[in-house]
Amino acid sequence: MKTAAGVDDSRVAKEAREDEYFLDPENWEAFRALAHRMVDEMVDQTRDLREQPAWQQPPDEVKQAIQNEPLPLEGQSAERAYDDYLRLVQPYTSGNRHPRAWGWVRGSGTPLAAMAEMLAAAMNTHAGGGEQSSTFVEERCLRWLAEAMGMPASTTGILTSGGTMANLLVLAVALAGPGPLPRGAELAAVFERFHARWRARTRCLPAYRDPYEDRCGDVAAAASGRCRWIGAARC
Prior knowledge:
Blueprint: H1 9-18, H2 28-47, H3 60-67, H4 78-89, H5 111-123, H6 133-148, H7 163-176, H8 184-201, E1 205-209, H9 216-224, E2 227-231
Parallel strand pairs: 1-2
């Protein structure tokens, strides 16, 4: 199609696209094929987990290939990156997914959870607020958890990335005192104010926990700066 001035619209649009940078795949069908391959091989590898070793020592050449790889100054294809993953990463995990992994109690994940993570990553939701369904889902899950634990309907909370962050937020709430939890620079100011107060008193804020709790509590206490866990006897 040409404009009134006789210019080819499709050529102009193509030239404009060539001058811009996108995060889209260069070839959507090639990306689709690679994505299907990734999912199929993930399902096969997870299905056959019981026939695989519970843990494998990473060979020296694997460790060196990862640790000594120079800073990449140019990109590589997604296919090449995935092949590196299959060769250097996937076979050498801590074994947490394996049925015979008894060295430490850790989450194993599930095939369906992997698909859920894929969908969540594709949406890349910013759940800080707004009229969006993903925020409603998070709020509904929190209300379910409160109800399951017999807590009041007015209970609020937040879903965190793990135990360390959950413990850190708990200590932040304890340091901040009653009222809305501050955010960003306000939260940093709260920590600094209480740090100064406890330094002046040469004391730590005591926090009580079960002695068999995971060490993520220790990490959170250290990050807060002025908290010390006190082990409580088991009931």
